[in-house]
């Protein structure tokens, strides 16, 4: 009735794609502590999966999420 009970599920790949994209580091990310990034217009805690320091202003790839912390990595190729 009026579409209230028709639950349409998003495909699993689309759910995971919500947490992928580019972000800009705003507070340094260190191996032993989280930093912050700006991702899709909001600021999030972030942790680098490779355990390296990432300075503010660096563009990173968001590859997932662990609760309220985004998981990021350095881009595979650098744009020149």
What is this entry, summarized?
The protein has 80 residues and is mainly β. 8% of the residues lie in helices and 40% in strands. It has a domain of 55 residues: Nucleic acid-binding proteins (OB fold (Dihydrolipoamide Acetyltransferase, E2P)).
Describe this structure in words.
- β2 (35-39) and β3 (42-48) form a beta hairpin.
- This protein has 1 helix and 5 strands.
- It has a domain at 19-73: OB fold (Dihydrolipoamide Acetyltransferase, E2P).
- It has a 5-stranded mixed β-barrel with strand order 1-2-3-5-4.
- The mean pLDDT is 84.
- The protein is mainly beta and 80 residues long.
- The longest helix is centred in the N-terminal third of the chain and has 6 residues, at 12-17.
Distance from first to last alpha carbon: 55 Å
Shape: globular
Number-wise, the strands total: 5
Summed over residues and divided by their number, the pLDDT gives a mean of: 84
Specify the helix fraction band: under 10%
Continuous helix count? 1
The H/E string reads: HEEEEE
Strand order of the largest sheet: 1-2-3-5-4
Query: Which structural class should the secondary elements be placed in?
Result: mainly beta
Query: Oligomeric form of this entry?
Result: single chain
Radius of gyration: 16 Å
CATH class of the domain at 19-73: Mainly Beta
In the predicted model, the low-confidence regions spanning at least 5 consecutive residues are none
- CATH third-tier fold name of the domain at 19-73: OB fold (Dihydrolipoamide Acetyltransferase, E2P)
- CATH architecture title of the domain at 19-73: Beta Barrel
Query: What would CATH call the homologous superfamily of the domain at 19-73?
Result: Nucleic acid-binding proteins
- Main beta-sheet strand count, sense and barrel state: 5 strands, mixed, barrel
Q: Which band does the percent of strand residues land in?
A: 35-45%
């Amino acid at each position: 009735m009026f579409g209230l009970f028709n639950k349409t599920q998003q495909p699993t790949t689309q759910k995971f794609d919500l947490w992928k994209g580019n972000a800009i580091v705003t507070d340094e990310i260190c191996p032993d502590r989280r930093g912050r990034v700006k991702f899709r217009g909001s600021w999030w805690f972030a942790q680098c999966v490779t355990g390296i320091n990432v300075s503010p202003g660096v563009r990173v790839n968001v590859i997932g999420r662990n609760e309220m912390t985004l998981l990021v990595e350095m881009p595979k190729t650098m744009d020149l």
